[in-house]
Amino acid sequence: MSTIKYILSLTFLNLLLFHVPFYSYVLEHIEVGTADGLLSLFVVMVALFVVNIFLLSLLALISTKVLKGFTLFMLFSAPIALYFMSTYNTILDRTMMGNLFNTNTSEALSYYHPKMFIYLFIGLLLAYIVFKIPIKKSKRVKLLKFGLGITVMGIVILYINSSKWLWLDKHAKNLGARAMPWSYVINSIRYKLRELKEHKKQILLPTATFANPKEKIVVILVIGESARAKSFSLYGYERETNPRLKKEDIVVLKNTKATATYTTASVHSMLSYVGSSSDSYEPLPNYLQRQGVEVIWRTKNWGEPHLNVETYQRASDLEVSCKGDECNYDSVLLTGLMKRIKASKKKKVFVVLHTSGSHGPSYFEKYPKKFELFKPVCKTVNIKECSQEELNNAYDNTIVYTDYFLATIIEKLKKEQGLNSLMIYLSDHGESLGEYGLYLHGTPYSIAPDVQKKVPFLFWASNSFKEKRNLKNIDFEHQKEHGDYNIFHSVMGAFEMNSTIYDNKLDIFSY
Ligand SMILES: [Zn+2]
Fold first, then answer.
1. Is 210 part of a structural domain of the chain?
2. What global pTM score does this model have?
3. Which of 71, 88, 153, 464 has a CA positioned 20 to 30 A from the CA of residue 303?
């Protein structure tokens, strides 16, 4: 078989066998039976065909061996990818490939199902059949003409149907993640490149010393999500959204502004020693881990910097051992937490709980039913359809649940009498609930309203911590302003760490 025929046959085989999720996505998003729907289908098929011919020709231009090697890989791996996509209803975008690379063996084994073997067998069989087909080398010039010819033809067809560009652009990510085998090949490369960049970027910070290395202390940092200070009664909201925290001996820090209006930038900034999302230094958890602190990161969210910590647990990891009716909510992050902390042999323990808090638009799904204090609530993700009252109610209920979540941590720490402990809570950014016609968050910082910037920032400390650090004599009320730049230095201060980068002016316990 000539190389060109081989490429064509392989393309048809690929389009025929491995694109069921792709086609079902397309059919779900066009109006089947209308001329417009047919045109979308035609354009997307042309695009898919051209992409396959173009990329396979590129491989053939390198060498027929490379083309054949890739084909075998594709025929063997695509059925397995299809199995995962259909079983777990996922798509293979960059984040998913990252998740797969980060899956450990025991997790991977938990995906095992006998049905997988059928897919594996089909893949191996296909690969074997194609392996037996000899390829006759085509001349490079001929190959180039063929690859470019088809590509140009495809571009012309797309150009004529420019009315479909918007549709293609809108669905590009979803279609790309279903185009086999390119979705997982290209997204794996994208993930690895990004990882490499982040690894390279982290400059190590200078070694620190501990003033009291033998003293046990536990610091829990809770990172909130989309919680705005305006909706906390602790910050003057007329509605009682903090019924539990108000009874606790906590310190509420006034005038706290987030440095960004979206999660990734805020969390990076919160963990950076210069308080900026664009710095190149190792983030707080990595630094503490290197200085001998036991670091436990638990998350029901995403967007953290590249972490190098001993314990990294996703909510899905914790769900396995979680009991009760709160395992689908932030409380899953507390599963066995105290036991885990007590089991640590290290004197300094740093826990980060990255919550999903008040992340919209489906506020009503962020808390268990019993926390629905304010009714009626908005029950659609299209929040503009809801009345202002329903929207506020749903959002406020998420704050009531956050209040409960934080109070639960305090209660757990209080029970450990004599344990030197501290809990800090800071939200990543605020949220718009229709003010100035804005919803959610992520408005460019310079024009973002205060509700997206002003965030709750509070802490609770055990009696021993308060006494040791003489907190009674600190006038927190008169600390003029706060920000995520306080986190790094305050945590260092709490552990009584010292190094050349420590800035006591940014440590809230040392003002
Ligand atoms: Zn966020």
1. no
2. 0.67
3. 88
